[in-house]
Prior knowledge:
This protein is an alpha/beta fold. Helix 21 (503-513) links the parallel strand 15 and strand 16 (516-520).
Amino acid sequence: MTNEEIGDLLEDIAAAYEVKGANRFRIMAYQNASEAFRHTSVDLKKLWQEGKLESIGGIGPSIASHLSEVFEKGESKHFQKIIKSLPEGMFELLKLPGIGPKTAYKLAKRFKLNNASTALLELGKIASQGEIRKLSGFGEKSEKKILEAIEDQKEKKGGKRMLLPVAEEVAQALVDYLKKEPACKKIEALGSLRRKAATIGDVDLAVSSNKPKKVIDKFTSYPEVKKIAVKGEGTARINLRNGRQIDLKVVELACFGSLLQHFTGSKAHNIALREYALKKGWSLSEYGIKKLKTQKSKLIKFSDEEKFYRFLGLDYILPELREGEDEIESAKNHKLPNLVKLSDIKGDLHIHSNIDIATSHDKGSASLEQIGRKAAELGYRYVAIADHNPATTTNSEKKIFNLLEMRKAKIDKYNNSSEKREKSVYIFCSLEVDIKPDGSLALPKMAFDLFDFLIAAVHTSFNMSKKKMTKRILSALKHPKVKILAHPTGRMLNRRSGYEADWDKIFEYCKKNKKFLEINAWPLRLDLPDLLARRARGKGVKFIVNTDSHELPHMDLMRYGVYVARRGWCEKSDIINTRNLKEISKYLISNT
DNA sequence: GCCGTTTTCGGCCCGACTGTTTTCAGTCG
């Protein structure tokens, strides 16, 4: 069972308890546990084997023991008992927006939706026959809403989360639009977009204004609107024709700081922050801070978000850190990291050029000179050309050597050219080498000396056992020329999850042997993922943020990799390509 | 069911909106 599946299971248990009218705090405990499992990068089964399930916050003796049974026997008697007494279809209906446990149960019970795989289909039929409106507590509107939700589900609209640059574009278009309304004083995109998460579900916008109605009216008449889902006095939600959902909140300027705080989230961070504040006798909301237990206590307002945190005795917590882990504790103890910035980056060590070396994977489109000029524009001091290795199946070893020798000569020539001297961008001679399924590198022995260093990467045979994949990666890293493991997990957002490997073992090896993990800035990859980056950092591993550019404009995408590093709590010192040329050469070039 | 810088017992984030009622439950972020 994956962490995600365990999260789903506990969410279902929470829903079942809700239907049964259990103590609401028990329900919350299961919801918290579900969230905690979804957001951890630790392998739960491994944690269970070590008997440390309770080391995760929100997991106590009860849930840990039920889960132990699940790991051991495949299911827990207690969980089965709770779930089995309810119609199976109920848990499918929960996937529809606007339908919670109570509603799902009512519908599933009344219409006997006992089969999970057909429940949505059946409910759709029932709704279109006008049967739902006849139930007490339901009406025409709720029936229509259910029908629409099922239709959306079928089209899988909004099912996929947006990649960060896509969400930025959607948000920017709306910000530009809202700016035309003079009643909008300040506009900001918040939520996971501001926290720079790898993928974004909904776009959240905050506006400060003393005429909220005008703002809401402008917002809901956005030309791309397909449906106005919510329209209140201070908030609204629209669904766009492209399937995206946008949330808007409006407050007066004096409260804008607390709104930024509230609407940036994450939910887990806000809950933790509010619990922390409660203990100090304060109650937090998007409007400000109130003293507890005093009737009609005055609201303290914050136009500035930093002051909101400082008021609570905390250092300012940057949005990228607000995931409800231990950032509040760290802020209290002045232990927050000084996060790496884009301007700290001095070079990009994974760039594909247009030099033709008969690669098996795609080559780049830019020349060395173009890459050098672009790097200079970005303020870099060095780059590494890391084309894919020549295909080993169609080229002889001699041919491969000749191609790579020709390529090295071109790079040497560039480094000795007047162009280089003017721009002062040094080009390392590297290569992105396939790690073959047996762990060997796809490069003839005689060619290794042609490189300053190598970047190793898995591009084939993803479906291996965890043990085999770990061994495969480790044996590739063992080669003294290999310094960097590119896009370590192989994930492609919205397409495939990464392959499984014993990351702790790999991290320990990297730390001990001075190998570096790439944080790949390509928005579809963002790999190493943030959670793993934080775990690796905890073990003392260092990183290199690379764009993996295949075209010149891709070199501008470095910031997405820096976001990942920041979400992984990385400081400048954790990132090797913040060093100057002399220092980084010491890290990467070995003569052994 | 979980948790501990007032607590191993007695707390547990805070507020908005919708739809169906007629003062509120359910859902959401």
